[in-house]
Specification:
The complex is a heterodimer of chains A (209) and B (433).
Chain A lengths: L1 E11 L2 E4 L4 E2 L4 E6 L5 H8 L7 E6 L2 E2 L5 H11 E4 L11 H13 L4 H10 L15 H12 L6 E5 L7 H18 L2 E6 L4 H4 L3 E4 L1
Parallel strand pairs in A: 4-9, 4-10, 7-8, 8-9
Antiparallel strand pairs in A: 1-2, 1-3, 1-5, 5-6
Chain B lengths: L1 H11 L1 H36 L4 E5 L3 H10 L8 E2 H8 L4 E13 L2 E6 L1 H6 L4 E4 L7 E4 L1 H7 L6 E2 L2 E2 L13 E7 L10 E4 H18 L6 H16 L19 E2 L1 E6 L3 H13 L2 E4 L1 H44 L1 H9 L4 H42 L12 H25 L3 H6 L2
Parallel strand pairs in B: 4-10, 6-9
Antiparallel strand pairs in B: 1-12, 1-13, 2-11, 3-4, 3-8, 3-12, 5-9, 6-10, 7-9
Helix pairs in contact in B: 1-12, 2-10, 2-12, 2-13, 3-10, 10-13, 12-13
The chains are: A alpha/beta (209), B alpha+beta (433).
């Protein structure tokens, strides 16, 4: 579950963003669309705990991200928030499986290979587990990125422009995949995009102005 | 996990790390090799002069006298008259005087005529057999015995002089009566007999030489011989008749050097001038000559040490550049780690560890390389000088310091990149990816 109230963020006094309140329950999907420059990425970074708002609150798992700093913020981010970026990036020196293990280990201190293998299996890329991420196709990389984001069964799964580079068919497939996986993990799914096609797929949506 | 990741990051881009690793290896190898060489050189040299205050020998270079009489690394300066030397050997200042007579060698190893005191001075113990008593009985050093496969009871012919392929004395065979236990001094590579054996061997040699004319293989013996003759001429007026005797009956009994240990330090102070002014001989102080060698070597060693440090500084720079460059490429990766829950400190640690792993690897391979180099040097000097080094073992604490220093350099080189990783702005980095 994630919800926000009166978030206000400023890069400098001339660039100020005020965002509408959001609410997304466990297993539900929220689409946030908007044109370039409306602060989509800023909002995503705020929701992910990568930026701290000037005022307002962002509640994840009964915790206000806006009031956390340092280690405790890192902890919450790693433990309760999963992010799928537009372009799938990985730790290049590690295999697909090790990337997942690392995502599990960072906030918990424990490796969970059973969980990692189950996720890879669920996303249909179990055969690629031992490969370096650069050896995967773009589609496989996106699946691996989703698997990594779900390693800790996060409260919130955030997706940044997950479909903007895809054709209609693949756009639909990825949108389905994200929703399905978020539901399986019991996470709230928040998708931030300018891709208008997703509006028909995710009925629950907000447009930034 | 962070440590493993750091290691994998190095292996992932091996070319980036290669230069740093090579430079670290080279600098550690040079410094460690010099540490080992210097210490073992000094140890070997100093172990051999213990109990020798002065060395008496024929005039010439004092350094040569020390090198030849104590280390067997050079040709002798010449021979001296035994009767003349004995006057000094019986002097009240003297605690112990050990005469040495060189003449023959076996396969390049010197056969030295001396007294059992020589064995005692080096604290030698017999591994097998007994000390020489009769003429042509010899005791053999441990290393030499192993290399030339000499056993108690083995008989062999000596070669005149120190050349490996020289003229052999076939009149008398030496017989091995004892093997020494290894004791880490020059003794390990020597063959020892009594003085009389050397004289007896060369009596016949002279005799034979007289018959067949100019039949002399070795130069240094000749020099010594001539000197002795000159000496004999000088003493002629005093009624000394050695040169008029038939050679076969009473040859000049010559020795090469005498090692002195004094009862009174007065001797060490007075003798050099006394002997230089009154005799045809000289005394040299092993300590002074040794210091001379070390100060000469010291310049070279110091130059090489500086070279080692310079390469180490270069390797620090190389580590820094490698980390700094890859950090630019990997900023997104680091930001990603932060979104996955990594703390600032963990990123800093990751970058530091990449540098430290390199340094540990460089140190390890450098130490290994220095041992290989020492082994090669040891083999070479063993063949040329019968002088070997021990390439195993860790030189404590100097090499411990070297490890700490290498790691310190790794820390310094990684400091700026590590701080950059620490203060990385995640949001900005992700937006500009």
């Amino acid at each position: 579950m994630i919800s926000t109230q009166n978030i206000r963020f400023e890069y400098n006094p001339a660039t100020v963003f005020e965002f509408p309140d959001l609410h997304c329950a466990d297993g539900e999907t929220l689409l946030v669309t908007g044109l370039s420059g409306t602060g989509k990425t800023t909002l995503l970074h705020l929701l992910a705990g990568l930026l701290t708002p000037k005022s307002g609150s962002i509640i994840v798992q009964n915790t206000d991200l806006a009031r956390l700093t340092g280690r405790s913020l890192d902890q919450v981010r790693g433990r309760h928030i999963g992010v799928v970026f537009q372009q799938a990036h990985f730790v290049a020196s590690l295999s697909v499986l090790d990337n997942l293990l690392l995502a599990g280990w960072l906030p918990t201190g424990h490796k969970n290979p059973a969980k990692a293998k189950a996720l890879l299996d669920r996303l249909g890329i179990a055969a690629q587990a031992a490969k370096k991420t650069a050896q995967l196709s773009v589609g496989q990389q996106q699946r691996a990125a989703i698997a990594r984001a779900l390693m800790n069964d996060p409260q919130v799964l955030l997706a940044d422009e997950p479909t903007s580079n895809l054709d209609d068919e693949n756009c639909r497939l990825v949108a389905e995949l994200l929703r399905e996986q978020a539901q399986l993990a019991g996470s709230s799914l928040v998708v931030v995009t300018h891709d208008q096609r997703l509006k028909s797929l995710y009925p629950n949506n907000i447009t930034l102005l | 996990m962070i440590a493993a990741l750091a290691w994998k990051n190095i292996l992932h881009k091996p070319l980036n790390a290669l230069l740093s690793w090579l430079l670290l290896t080279a600098s550690v190898a040079i410094i460690s090799l010099l540490l080992l060489l210097q210490e073992q050189f000094q140890q070997k040299f100093e172990a051999n002069i213990q109990g020798v205050d002065l060395v008496l020998g024929a005039k010439g270079s004092p350094l040569q006298l020390i090198l030849s009489s104590i280390y067997h690394l050079d040709n002798p300066t010449g021979n001296i008259d035994y009767a003349e030397a004995q006057k000094w050997m019986n002097h009240p200042f003297v605690a112990k005087a050990i005469p040495l007579a060189y003449g023959d060698s076996y396969r390049g190893y010197s056969i030295v005529g001396t007294t059992p005191d020589y064995l005692e001075k080096y604290g030698a113990s017999m591994a097998r057999g007994q000390v020489f008593q009769q003429n042509f009985e010899v005791v053999v050093g441990a290393e030499l015995a192993k290399k030339c496969q000499l056993e108690v009871g083995t008989e062999f012919f000596g070669t005149h002089g120190t050349a490996k392929e020289g003229e052999e004395h076939h009149e008398h065979a030496y017989r091995v009566v004892g093997l020494l236990a290894p004791n880490g001094t020059m003794l390990d590579n020597l063959i020892l007999s009594n003085l009389e054996s050397v004289w007896a061997m060369h009596e016949t040699h002279h005799h034979e030489g007289g018959e067949s004319g100019n039949h002399h293989a070795e130069k240094h013996y000749e020099e010594g011989h001539h000197e002795a003759e000159n000496e004999a001429d000088e003493h002629h007026e005093d009624g000394h008749e050695s040169s008029s005797h038939p050679i076969t009956q009473s040859p000049t009994r010559e020795i090469t050097a005498v090692l002195f240990k004094f009862r009174s330090p007065m001797g060490i102070v007075q003798w050099p001038r006394l002997i230089a002014q009154n005799t045809n001989m000289q005394v040299a102080s092993p300590v002074i000559e040794l210091n001379r060698i070390f100060s000469l070597l010291g310049i070279g060693i110091e130059a090489f040490t500086w070279l080692g440090w310079a390469i180490m500084a270069l390797s620090a720079l190389s580590v820094f550049i490698a980390l700094y460059n890859t950090l630019k490429e990997r900023r997104y990766e680091l930001a990603l780690l932060r979104t996955m829950g990594a703390e600032r400190g963990q990123l800093m640690w990751l970058v530091l560890l990449e540098s430290l792993w390199l340094c540990v690897a460089g140190f390890g391979s450098g130490i290994l390389l220095s041992r290989v180099a020492l082994w090669l040097i040891s083999n070479a000097s063993e063949q040329a000088y019968h002088f070997s080094f021990d390439q195993f073992g860790f030189k404590w604490p100097q090499e411990g310091w070297l490890l700490l220093l290498t790691l310190g350099i790794g820390l310094v080189a990684a400091l700026i990149p590590a701080l950059k990783a620490y203060s990385l702005n995640i949001s900005k980095t992700l937006q500009h990816a």
